[in-house]
Amino acid sequence: MSKIRIAIADDYAIIRDGLKVGLARDDNFEVVLEAESGEELVEGIARTEVDVVLLDLRMPGMDGMEATTVIRQRFGRVKILAVTMYDDEKFIIHLMEKGANGYLLKNADSDEIRKAIYAVHETGYYFNDLVNKALLRKLVIRGNIKPNFNSNVELTERELQVLHLICEEKTNTEIGKIIFLSPRSVEGIRQRLIEKVGVRNTAGLAIFAVRNGIV
């Protein structure tokens, strides 16, 4: 497989260096961009091909929350993994609704970071103990989180089938093998689901599925 191109955005060089050391152990990763602020990150992505961003949320100037919004608007294919000290549930879901693909705490070990990078690159989202289906279900049922979905969404049997498999964290290739479609056809259904439901990414689809009792 081609290398996964990674950007690291954190205003502390020691944090960036620590992440680089951990990532260097995997030959499939290549750190192609470092940034100390959201502005520097956005400018760098405009010049450099990036697959996954490891993004601190507290940075001077444009912070991680603002950067997430800008990246999602301008560079839709780039996957965003927030890496932060903050574990507030509402904050996590709010960020993911803005378009982040996953959420890690800064005390995450290198194995979890590797797993998260592969997950967002291959499936579009990463749910750990902070952001798993059970937590989302509890939050939504409790009424604390009210995502904005298109009303009266009608999904075909095939779309529901794909949505179930997406929530099982299957890749396009894996889904295609299960339902006998090409990965490109599966990606087309995934994009159609995103448009129908009115969310920003695959993580939004998972939230929608939990909110509506589909999974």
Walk me through the topology:
Layout: E1 4-9, H1 13-23, E2 29-35, H2 38-47, E3 52-55, H3 64-74, E4 79-84, H4 89-98, E5 102-105, H5 110-123, H6 133-142, H7 157-167, H8 172-179, H9 183-197, H10 202-211
Parallel strand pairs: 1-2, 1-3, 3-4, 4-5
Helix pairs in contact: 2-3, 6-10, 7-9, 7-10, 8-9, 9-10
**Main sheet specs:** 5 strands, parallel
Rounded mean pLDDT score? 85
Number of domains: 2
Alpha plus pi helix count: 10
Question: What is the gyration radius calculated from CA atoms?
Answer: 17 Å
Order of helices and strands: EHEHEHEHEHHHHHH
Q: Tell me the CATH architecture of the largest domain.
A: 3-Layer(aba) Sandwich
Distance between the termini: 32 Å
* Class by alpha and beta content: alpha/beta
CATH topology grouping of the largest domain = Rossmann fold
* Number of E-type strands: 5
| CATH-assigned homologous superfamily of the largest domain | Response regulator
Fraction of residues in H or I helices: 40-55%
Under CATH at level 1, the class of the largest domain stands as Alpha Beta
Task: Enumerate the spans where pLDDT stays under 50 for 5 or more consecutive residues.
Answer: none
Strand content: 5-15%
Q: Which strands sit side by side, in order, in the main sheet?
A: 2-1-3-4-5
CA-based shape = globular
